[in-house]
Write a structure and sequence with these properties.
The protein is of the alpha+beta class. The longest helix is centred in the first third of the chain and has 15 residues. The radius of gyration is 26 Å and the shape is extended.
């Protein structure tokens, strides 16, 4: 009970009962096994075992992944120089998808049936006599979306069959992602959501609305040139 009430407040009564029933009271429990036990060492060992269980090269060409090296020009504070003369950072081993392929896949997905392809302005009147108030709740009722929609409608017609023109609004994100509840393995993906989909649907994990574009390698593998 001292362990339960000390440290983290995230421990539950069910977890405490499980510790007693499934660990301390089991027939094969031996407290000598915990001598010289290190949580960090065991987590690293688990990470190593997990790597053996999974394909070490999941980003295969068959799955639509491409492999490239990316060169980035580095800024220099208070240094007046052209971009061509700036030092570069070579980023090897960047795995990425074709952006067009991601768009095609997303628009053929079942979720695309609920996409908004025609933007609109949204107004709210608290009473019939009130002055209408503009409401911005989604990307497809923003001024930028409306303006770009008007621009593509003004474009000259294409040769051949005529199809309705619409915007596919890609919203890009990138952040570090912890891969498991145990261990320290991380990935840094670049992924996109589509602004044509309502945020109320887009935010549901069950919708699988995120589309992976690329994976950024660890900074330790970079080389300045």
């Amino acid at each position: 009970m001292n362990w339960f009430y000390s440290g983290s407040t995230m421990k539950s009564v069910a977890e405490l009962q499980s510790l007693v029933d499934n660990v301390l009271l089991t027939d094969d429990y031996d407290h000598t096994h915990l001598q010289n036990f290190s949580v960090r060492s065991e987590l690293r060992r688990l990470d190593g075992e997990l790597e053996k269980c999974f394909d070490p090269h999941p980003f295969t060409h068959e799955n639509g992944w491409k492999h490239s090296n990316v060169r980035i020009k580095l800024p220099a504070e208070r240094v007046n120089q052209t971009e061509e003369s700036a030092p570069g950072l070579e980023v090897p081993g960047v795995y990425h998808h074709s952006l067009l392929e991601v768009f095609t896949t997303a628009l053929q997905n079942e979720n695309a049936k609920s996409f908004h392809y025609t933007p609109f302005s949204l107004f709210w009147k608290p009473t019939p006599e009130s002055t209408p108030e503009r409401v911005y709740s989604e990307l497809y009722n923003s001024d930028a979306f409306l303006e770009e929609h008007r621009n593509i409608q003004r474009l000259p017609p294409d040769c051949g069959p005529q199809y309705e023109r619409a915007i596919a609004a890609a919203m890009l994100w990138s952040d570090s992602t912890h891969l498991a509840n145990f261990g320290t393995q991380l990935l840094w993906p670049v992924y996109t959501f589509f602004g044509n989909q309502s945020k109320y649907e887009r935010g549901k994990p069950s919708q699988f609305a995120a589309h992976h574009l690329a994976y950024i390698p660890s900074v330790s593998t970079f080389s300045k040139i």
